[in-house]
Amino acid sequence: MFGLSELAIILVVVAAVLAVKKLPELTRSAGKSARILKSEARAARDADEPGTPRVIPGETVGREDTGTGNDTGTGTGTGTGPRG
């Protein structure tokens, strides 16, 4: 008759044979999970350090360029600009 250790070995071998088909999918899933965990840890660490500015690529607009569209740049909205 089989003892407990022999039965455990047989179950491990059967599980390994059946899991061979799923192994690439499981490793891919584990890699994705590790990347997500790493990025979340980095985001949490960056949120804890308020002194470091975040750099967002984009276009810099000067204050004089942010008017309402009229030539005066005062932002009063008198209706003398292109919207008129």
Highlighted features:
about 80 residues; mainly alpha
Structure overview:
The mean pLDDT is 76. The protein has 84 residues and is mainly alpha-helical. Helices cover 50% and strands 0% of the residues. It is elongated, with a radius of gyration of 31 Å. The chain has helices spanning 4-19, 23-48. It has 2 helices and no strands.
Indicate the multimeric state: single chain
The total beta strand count reads: 0
pLDDT averaged over residues: 76
Helix content: 40-55%
Largest β sheet strand count, sense and barrel closure: none
The dominant shape is: elongated
Order of secondary-structure elements: HH
Please state the structural category. Answer: mainly alpha
List unreliable stretches of 5+ residues.
Answer: none
Measure the end-to-end span: 97 Å
Total of helices: 2
Q: What Rg, in angstroms, do the CA atoms define?
A: 31 Å
Strand content: under 5%
Subcellular location: Membrane
Protein name: Twin-arginine translocase TatA/TatE family subunit
InterPro entries: TatA/B/E
Biased composition (Gly residues): 70-84
In a nutshell, what does this entry contain?
It comes from Streptomyces rubrogriseus. With 84 residues, the protein is mainly alpha-helical.
Topology:
Elements: H1 4-19, H2 23-48
